[in-house]
Amino acid sequence: MDFEKLDKIIHEKWRLAIMALLASRRGWSFQELKGELKMSDGNLITHLRTLHKLGLVSVTKEMRGRPQTSYALTAKGRTAFRDHVAVLEQIVKQWKRK
Amino acid sequence: MMNDRSRAEEDLRVIRTLMERATIYRAISAPTALVGGVLSILSAVFIHLSNQSQSLIGRPIRPREFVFIWIDVLILTVVMNALFVWREARSSGRPFISPGMKLALRGIAPNLIVPAIFTLWFLKIGFLGAVELELVVIWVVFYGLALLSTALFAPRSLAILGWAFLLTGVSVPVIANAVEGLPDNVPTMVMGLTFGLYHLIYAACTWSRKRDAGEQPVDE
Question: Is B110 on the interface with A (CB under 8 A)?
Fold first, then answer.
């Protein structure tokens, strides 16, 4: 088991961080994600669009006094994230057995 | 292989840190603790001076007045806390009632039932029996339990504050039984020590971290 088995889309520093936060609870606003990850608007929106296009992240737009966009993992995204973490754990375990 | 393993471990560490940080909720912020602490110290000093010299209002504080003073402190602190949370929610785009707040309220609420009922009983007939110390012990113990009920998702500093309240609360009756001739102002002293001093210490310990983290919930 090595890094070749990992999903290249998810295994990018910022996208992995975004997915980790989205996996921790349902519904994150853009501002929350930005504040937590200390990312620029442009960088964050680019990665969120990539994840959304692949069906890993859902986008909800609503009015709460002002327009607010919130993001969540889709079922596919949750499975992909879980699988990704499992592969990482296997890499670590494999090395410990040797 | 070694490189892969290090990278995998680092990735897992980052994932774990992010997920833990996202689920941590601080039920009492440093500014709230500061406001509560200062108000409690001022109230304790006011009650103490009124009872000692009677120079402030010309007579000692009556038992029901004692309760109303502390209820006022509670209301003022809760209102200020709501203001701090609202301001923080507005600036960060979070909802005012966040998932963390809902979780904390669900944990805290059952611990408020006993002190609320005991306080109502005190206001109705309990004040006739000079049981301020018992009332204060109930407040301190259940406040400690309320804080500890959030310990699973709260930063360590909040759990320590909860333990400090709980241990102080349970030790007061023991000390009161063991020591003869305690002064009458013990309830006021206990309130000043716990809700005043403990909150001020908590605010001082968490203030710098709050500023570093830009008021994000942080692990301490």
Answer: no
Residues of A in contact with B94 (CB under 8 A): 29, 31-32
Write out pLDDT tens, residues B159-186. 999 999 999 999 999 998 888 878 888 9
Task: List pLDDT tens digits, range A35-64.
Answer: 888 889 999 999 999 999 999 999 998 776
Contacts for A66-70: CB closer than 8 Å, 24+ residues apart: A68/A29, A68/A30, A68/B93, A69/A29, A69/A30, A70/A27, A70/A28, A70/A29, A70/A30
Sequence letter at residue B122: F
Chain A CB contacts of B99 below 8 Å: 25-27
Q: Do A31 and B93 touch (CB under 8 A)?
A: yes
* Whether B92 and A35 lie within 8 Å, measured CB to CB: yes
Instruction: State whether residue B214 sits within 8 Å of chain A by CB.
Output: yes
Element (DSSP H or E) covering residue A64: strand A57-64
Residue A28, SS3? strand
Whether B219 and B24 have beta carbons less than 8 Å apart is answered as yes
Q: What is the pTM of this model?
A: 0.69
Subunit contact B23:A25, Cβ cutoff 8 A: yes
Please state, in angstroms and rounded to a whole number, the distance separating the CA atoms of residues B46 and B54.
10
Closest-approach residue (CA) in chain A for B24: A24
